[in-house]
Amino acid sequence: MRVLTNAGRFTPPGQGEGRRYTEELRVPDLSVGTYCVPVGGKDTQLPHTEDEVYVVASGRAKLTAASGTVDVGPGSVVFVPAGEEHRFTDIAEDLTVLVFFGPAEYTRRQT
Fold this sequence. Notes:
Blueprint: E1 20-27, E2 30-37, E3 51-65, E4 68-72, E5 77-80, E6 86-102
Antiparallel strand pairs: 1-2, 2-6, 3-4, 3-5, 3-6
């Protein structure tokens, strides 16, 4: 067992960064991280080769994907399949999201 002590805690991005991602756990079939985007920050992520589940710990925003747009806030859980373009927009409150990748992020080959 391993307790992920800092998972889900807001950590502001560094100077000149619009967002921050901290990987909390990595095993072959799963990785878990905390994604933080402050009000005024910009989510510039590109589609991933792994499936993702987002669990919003705090904050409010929209999650815009190729398949649609949804409002997210504390407790929201959203699945984004591998390869689907997506990003958080309209950040209304500092956003903290737990991100679960299956398999672990960057383990599938790019095609």
